Amino acid sequence: MIKTTRRQILAAGVSVPLLSLAGCSPASSAVPDFVKRKGSRLTLDDKTYRFVGANLWYGAYLGADAAYGDRPRLVRELDRLKALGITNLRIMASAEEGPLKAGIKPGFRTRDSWNETLFEGLDYCMAEMAKRDMKAVLCLTNFWEWSGGMMTYLHYATGEYVDMNDPAHPWPEFPDRNSDFYRSEEAIGLYHDHVRHMVGRTNKVTGQRYSDDPALMSWQLCNEPRPGVTPEVIDRALPDYYAWIGATAKLIRSIDGNHLLSLGQEGTTASAGREDVFVEAHREMDYLTAHIWPLNWGWVDGKDLAGTWDAGAAKVADYIDTHVRLATEMGKPLVFEEFGFPRDGELYDPEIPTTFRERFYAMIYQAVEDSVASGGPVAGSNFWAWNGEARAAHDDRRFHRGDTAYMGDPPHEPQGWYGIFDRDASMHDVIKAHGAEIRKN
């Protein structure tokens, strides 16, 4: 293992910003079919690039040539998404095997070994996406427990861990403890080993290096990285948090000068509402990200969506406006790369109506369309998430160890909570209408 020292991390944190203004390293050549950044716009072939996207975290799992994979299903799901007008998919390119109860197995890695079969599953997924002219955002680890993530890296380094939702360690102990990752040289070194392994990889299906693949839009440092939740923990973690961002950005750009970088942060919610943290965390990124979760954040009551919709919608509108303003002030593109809402009554079956979910999607999509029409910074969105033909395998609507009917709802969540099924016709209509509107511009 090649470790990154604390001195190197801190040095990298102040050495990257000039490179980030160009969106690539000085040595990279201009290739017309890579997505690039030009001011507050994303571009492709020198034209403004806008997209309608989805989250498909399990793409590599379906693509794996193994008992836990299903390549024919992956092909069917990509065809369905293409028919809806989806051109951009956000996918996990990591999963760390460890002791966390909700962590999916198999993973891309253990502490000391790589799962080549799962990497080849991602290779297959990327090759199939390229055939459909889709772009990928590949996420390199997770702040949350369902794919192992930062807590598992801490376990690799220290032998210690905290499980999310453990009654002995109630909220917010998990995210606050997870912030220790940013000051662990060994944990960051192991994570950087994965970054090198993934970013420097050659796709075994296409024979093309990932760094040269135009089907890739962006490397993403992490899914929803937070510097903690408790204000004093955030204050303590921020120098290390910023240093981790800077060091990782520098590392990726030293391997791949063609592709964009993104952080994967939720927005100001990730820092207890602090705009200064959002701005500083994204200073070295090519575009900004925001996630919007009204139910998870307590803005609506899933059992009383009708009674809480108006107040919740007002908070959604304010959150959107805040991040559009920040993107405008920073002169960078913005992507709403996660947003989700429950079915009526917060029930899970595909037969349950999606009345309020349709309203919520319409809000997000209208904000994107308004920004497009006004020349604003919003480049696109990725809804969370695509369930496709999968159905809950158990009466308790939970993912059980060994299940392979992957949904957009990851293993730690009720299966059917937020995902869009292949037969959600009214939701499909909302997505298609938005795609048609985006394509007009």
UniProtKB/TrEMBL annotation:
Q: Name the keywords, alphabetized.
A: Glycosidase, Hydrolase, Signal
Annotated PROSITE patterns? PROKAR_LIPOPROTEIN (PS51257)
Residues in domain Glycoside hydrolase family?
Answer: 33-440
**Reaction(s) catalysed (UniProt annotation):** Random hydrolysis of (1->4)-beta-D-mannosidic linkages in mannans, galactomannans and glucomannans
Q: Which residues cross the membrane?
A: none
Which InterPro entries does the record match to this protein?
Answer: GH (IPR017853), Glyco_hydro_5 (IPR001547), MAN-like (IPR045053)
Question: What EC number(s) is this enzyme filed under?
Answer: 3.2.1.78
SUPFAM superfamilies per UniProt: (Trans)glycosidases (SSF51445)
Mind telling me which PANTHER family this protein's record contains?
Answer: GLYCOSIDE HYDROLASE FAMILY 5 DOMAIN-CONTAINING PROTEIN (PTHR31451:SF40), PTHR31451
The name under which this protein is listed is: mannan endo-1,4-beta-mannosidase
The species this protein belongs to is: Parasphingorhabdus flavimaris
